[in-house]
Amino acid sequence: MTAPPTQLSAVLLVGSLKSSSEPSSSELLGTQVLDAMKPHGVTGTVVRLADHDIKPGVELDMGPGDAWPTIREQILGADVLVLATPIWMGQPSSVTKRALERLDAELSEADDEGRLRTFGRVAVVAVVGNEDGAHHVCAELFQALNDVGFTIPAGGGTYWVGRAMETVDYKDLDETPEKVAATTTTLAANAAHLARLLKSQPYPPA
After folding, report:
1. pLDDT tens figures, 99-154
2. Which residue stretches, if any, does this entry annotate as coiled coil (predicted)?
3. Rounded to an integer, what distance in angstroms lies between the CA atom of residue 36 and that of residue 148?
4. What is the pTM assigned to this prediction?
5. Sign of the CA dihedral 182, 186, 42, 139?
């Protein structure tokens, strides 16, 4: 009899510029990633970054009122980080970039064996927008996440972009495009597979 898979956890950081009181295409695609991970034994939580006072800076804690330390605990407590962002002016959103800046502090943090605390954690990306640029945004996020210690699986990005100069949002579609759904399914399977491998066989000591 096959043993049940090791249970994993994921945290979704939503980089929408809107608070959670408003619908978000980024959150929709991000939660679709979480849903696609469920059959692989992954449970997920959602953090809408715009709901929190994340102070500017590159330290673990930027002082009174800074919401990042609590968010950081959720990131380090999860096996998979899902980073979902809209495209604005061809770039990841400003709140997404704020999160990346705060993750820069992880470069100074190590476990008892000298590994970054982010080592062994998987990161994937979900991008939505109404203009071309999804590949560019994925490339920016992949580099930054890998630079601070996360591992990117094969097919680690899923995205949707509408036709140029139109106003249809991902959340307004009648159904998820077949290609997007298939890409998200593959991303979820690969992310869970890699996270489970890294959990059972950690990176070697530094």
Report:
1. 999 999 999 999 999 999 999 999 999 999 987 799 999 999 999 999 999 999 99
2. none
3. 26
4. 0.95
5. negative
